[in-house]
## 1
Amino acid sequence: MQAFLITFCISDMDLECANQETVKQGLLARGWPPIKGFSKHVKTKVLEFFSQLIKLGQDDPRRVVHSLKAGLALTLVSLFYYYQPLYKSFGVSAMWAVITVVVVFEFSVGATLGKGVNRGLATLLAGGLAVGAHQLANLSGQIGEPIVLGIFVFLQAAVSTFVRFCPQIKARYDYGLLIFILTFSLISISGFRDDEVLELVHKRLLTVLIGGSTCVIISVLLFPVWAGQDLHNLIASNMEKLGIFLEGFGDEYFKMPEDGESKEDRPFLQGYKSVLDSKTNEDALANFARWEPRHGRFQFRHPWKQYLKIGALTRKCACRIESLNGHLYADIQAKREIRSKIQETCTTMSMESGKALKELSMAIKTMVKPFAADIHIENSKSSVKNLDTLLKSGLWDDETDLLEVVPVATVASLLIDVVTCTAEIAESVNELATMLKFEVVEPTVSPEKPETGQPKIGIS
Amino acid sequence: MQAFLITFCISDMDLECANQETVKQGLLARGWPPIKGFSKHVKTKVLEFFSQLIKLGQDDPRRVVHSLKAGLALTLVSLFYYYQPLYKSFGVSAMWAVITVVVVFEFSVGATLGKGVNRGLATLLAGGLAVGAHQLANLSGQIGEPIVLGIFVFLQAAVSTFVRFCPQIKARYDYGLLIFILTFSLISISGFRDDEVLELVHKRLLTVLIGGSTCVIISVLLFPVWAGQDLHNLIASNMEKLGIFLEGFGDEYFKMPEDGESKEDRPFLQGYKSVLDSKTNEDALANFARWEPRHGRFQFRHPWKQYLKIGALTRKCACRIESLNGHLYADIQAKREIRSKIQETCTTMSMESGKALKELSMAIKTMVKPFAADIHIENSKSSVKNLDTLLKSGLWDDETDLLEVVPVATVASLLIDVVTCTAEIAESVNELATMLKFEVVEPTVSPEKPETGQPKIGIS
């Protein structure tokens, strides 16, 4: 299968390229060399694919563990076939346990539990309703029976398919509705041939339960991956990424390009980009996390919505940073004298917001009340005030060209927006800290106090 | 099922609320009134749910059609059970056709085809390999056989599960790998009991093919929903949303709040927000669209990547607009005199970019070469130049407080960014137009020519 996929991917990517080559070389001139070249190309692609797989494993070793767990769960359930007494009681229905394991076993406990509960409940409900439908159809005689059953199957499939479009239901019960349609159809249709419908329902339910609980048990007991923990870490690390950008931004923006170095080779300044597209991932993790029981410092009814709120604010801040980043590499840069006038305040604003975000990220990670974050936010706010005073104090020459002020004014204004965003993030992290009763730990090293008083003028 | 889901949702949402009420009223005081209140509450929620369903249908009637199509496909396939000669040849295996229809039938043709092809090919490959595994296991004697089979099942499940983590494979072949694991396990395990493995593979493959082709035929022939068309429309409508914002922004920003109207009730200015989170949707639609055959003006190898490129640029522009939107409702607004100085140029920049985006959106929708867009972009670019001249010409008083200039400068600078983004979008739409050979239609009404010459001063 893998070999097939690789070939498929390669053929897909290189079709155009290969076509061009064919045309170039002419139909008659084709011979060994192109085939040799192609096989070399395939070799390179296969090697690339394997190195990508190795990287996937190194990036998150839990993926390797998950794969082994999936193999184990499937092998365990297949014992039903191998072990004579078990096989006798279930027969071919044991197949449902195997199917359940393949479909229900997911990366995180929450996703596995969600799918398992959905599958179990949907099988139970659909089984019950299908038995009812079967009884009703029985009343309509031999010719009427398939017609009545056909109508039932059509109606339930159409209605359930439509309900699956409802966003709230799609988020949590989509898989359940799919299994509802599947079980209802299978049992009501099979019932037409098989008089022992109840036994069929019973066997299907039992095998689904066995498959589902095997998944859940292995998922919870062997190196569990908690979606809640992942969401928690994702929110914290997204905040940290913004913090890293902001800490580095000031120096990078005000650095003069004369040292011959290109500004674009700063990978640490590009980390924030992944934050912009993290909504889907956050929503999915929050949906899975809702299914998870109490684990570690996470309760069953953990305030996941608050995490999503913090995530949304972080993305809003990332959007401002995207605009800031555009100014980092802009062709039109303000003159050195103008930039140096506000260099210190802007660098402080950026640096302090960055520190605050990193502090808040650390507070979430360690579940300790953010102590120094407020101080950093105060520092950044007082820098905003300093900037105001600086601008009011008319430090600018009369000859200063306003056109040259615009880029700097924009950066300053975006930084003010970032400070506001950071304050909003801090507020919602504090709300989370109150909800979850974060530990209060006195810091060993006292952070710098808020700056007040007269604005300082940049090194000009 | 639906009733269960509704109750589940409601209980979920209102648990806390209900708890508080219980506490308030005391355990003894509870009687009819709370139950009456609760049942009224449930009624309201059920009514809300139904009105939401009706809205879902009204918003996109294709959803209703899809549900009916799903019901029809399932009813058709269930004929296998009802019709004696068909049942005789397939027996219980006919179940696989039903399962295939339930799982494969998706909203768009591309998604259905993708799942169908994945399921068909994966069943074929896994069936073949499972027969091989079965032959190999046969050689190892009665005791060795289950052990060898167990090892095979474990290894293929673990390896395939791991390969599913690979992002490129996950995007297109995830379902295929799932079915590969499922079929290989089922057939190799069943093979242990059933000597007619080949017949089992043959039956499974045939029923999967019947189910899959039923889905594909109904999906393509009855009111088809093309993912490609949806992606095409989504990209165009996202651009239009940004255009609507930009067309309205100038007037909204420079309007004085004295007319007592709140600035926040402008729903047309909020449309851009959905653009920020459209990446996942675009990626999914592009993945589905790749499976679709030629339809209407879309070929099989349509340049979907170019659509994703335009989408990414649109999101980048939406990010700037998010920042602009922040300034629309900012507490600190620049003074009337300062604002009115750049009002005309900024309004033109915004208006012309908006018009260009709407024109580009229309060009994509109608697949006609964007004619007027370049003129609007030229207009917006010359407004940028006008702004530069205006700022250089020292029209500002010496007494002008720089602090009051900052918000206006920022808005102007963000608008300059928007103009740049719009030009980038126009460039990639033109690339698309060249790739797809968009029609060239001479406009009946000639749009305004680019403004050049001296900058105009705002009404002050």
## 2
Amino acid sequence: MSRADEFIDANRQYASQFTQGDLPMPPARQVAVVACMDARLDVYRLLGLGLGEAHVIRNAGGVVTDDVVRSLLISQRLLGTTEIVLIHHTDCGMWTFKDDAVKADIEKETGHRPAFALDAFDDPYADVRQSIRRLKAVPYLPNGEAISGFVYNVAHGTLEPVSEA
Amino acid sequence: MSRADEFIDANRQYASQFTQGDLPMPPARQVAVVACMDARLDVYRLLGLGLGEAHVIRNAGGVVTDDVVRSLLISQRLLGTTEIVLIHHTDCGMWTFKDDAVKADIEKETGHRPAFALDAFDDPYADVRQSIRRLKAVPYLPNGEAISGFVYNVAHGTLEPVSEA
């Protein structure tokens, strides 16, 4: 049985108890969260988010890429969010490799070398600051100044604010 | 009070009851989910996902971009996932605009035109198929064939499989 089949079964149960089918498209709390894809981050629970309250953007690392900027641009310009919250975390997979080595392996195996950065980093606190700097350099986010950054501790479930300095 | 402050308060409650601090980094169910950032998709609940079970990648639309390929590459090559599940949904913000018009507005207001696609689409079923085609064209995903696509219904909480044809 594939995971997709398991998800279909689990969703039947969810849908049978679903009662929040009348929520509007724009996030009620006017916030966009950018977090790592790590399986140990249940973003809705760890932030106390209810259904319909926040955009949730996730990728490897929670790093700010062009795709994150694209998503935030749509979030802010078309769907009214005014604040950005970044979440990196402890014990992140992004610390376990270097771009050059992984790309060389891929090229050796397949003949193809990805034309984009994998964007590995060593320090989640420094990378939250890097992500904030990247966002502040974007000239077309209407609310590009209201940004907070955190490191989530996967061992303790806690959220640690990252100062910008 | 900013949303970030509200999240800090909510997280104190979450952390005080947190008991799953010993989960490994690789997702237990070896699956990566790619879903839209829409606030009405609580991906863990609607798929019956437990903490530590799946990578969750989210962006505007749930479309396959270079950043999604980057995240899946890291997910599959470095963290052992072997299956991809794509989730688009009904009533999506991506149907409400056209790239050209939004980019022209941005250029008029700020002088800057984004150098990337916003990737608006009209039909979530067609765009799930487009996303599957994009993934299958990537030459360096070790498990790039095991892909399922769904459209989630935000009014009913249901998940509808999208056939590839």
